[in-house]
Amino acid sequence: MANYQRVLLKLSGEALAADGEGLYDHAFLEKIAGVVKKCVDDGTQVAIMVGAGNIWRGRQGVDMDRGTADSMGMLATCINALMLKDTFGRAGLDARVLTSVEMPQFAELYTSYRAKEYLAAGKVIVFGGGIGLPFFSTDTAAAMRAAEIGADVMLMAKNIDGVYTDDPKTNPAAVKLDTISCRDILKDGLRAIDSAAAALTMDTKIPVLVFGLDDPENILRAVRGEKIGTVITC
Fold first, then answer.
1. What's this model's pTM, rounded to 2 decimal places?
2. Contact 225, 207 (CB under 8 A)
3. HEC secondary structure over 89-155
4. What is the DSSP string of 152-198?
5. Residue 71 neighbours by CB under 8 Å, 6+ apart
6. What is the pLDDT of residues 160-177, one digit of tens each?
């Protein structure tokens, strides 16, 4: 049974990609959709913030104006949100895309009231466009939307199975942590979530669970309260 009534799930753009070949791994997306449906069937309301790393990251625009580069990234998240909506629809879910900027031909404009109304009706929400402003990552956007919709927890599905004392790819002695506070993340400069997101969750007191998306069923395990990944307390 579900451990949370309402969750904000952060999916990175890289999680949607096909191991560097093409923008999307459609079979993997279908697995994610199937797991999200199990969560909804369990009674959990699911909102998703999606990144854009499979298409574009603002920092790729090295010589570009930062605002323009970040705007491209925000538009890319909208493309990913539409892909998720379509995949979810084929899995039997009623999904809606809410964006931070107006694009009525493609999606609905985000308001917290609209998002909460849809969630209460059993619809899955996919957020596109981040918060609609440059210089803010989708981690920060996820933390903000989690607070606005009254999520019980923010679930961060990543390509690593939790938070470590150092980068385990470069430091084999790095140790995985079961729990860590937002304050310690900021103090130790850990990159589990960006500093703005950590500071925001410290203010809103919404816990964060970081876990690996190598197995999409981990989303369901997280929602059911099973011991998985790293809990970031605030």
1. 0.94
2. no
3. HHCCCCEEEEECCCCCCCCEECCHHHHHHHHHCCCEEEEECCCCCCCCCHHHHHHHHHHHHCCCEEE
4. SEEEEEESSSSEESS-TTT-TT--EESEEEHHHHHHHT--SS-HHHH
5. 134
6. 899 999 888 889 899 999
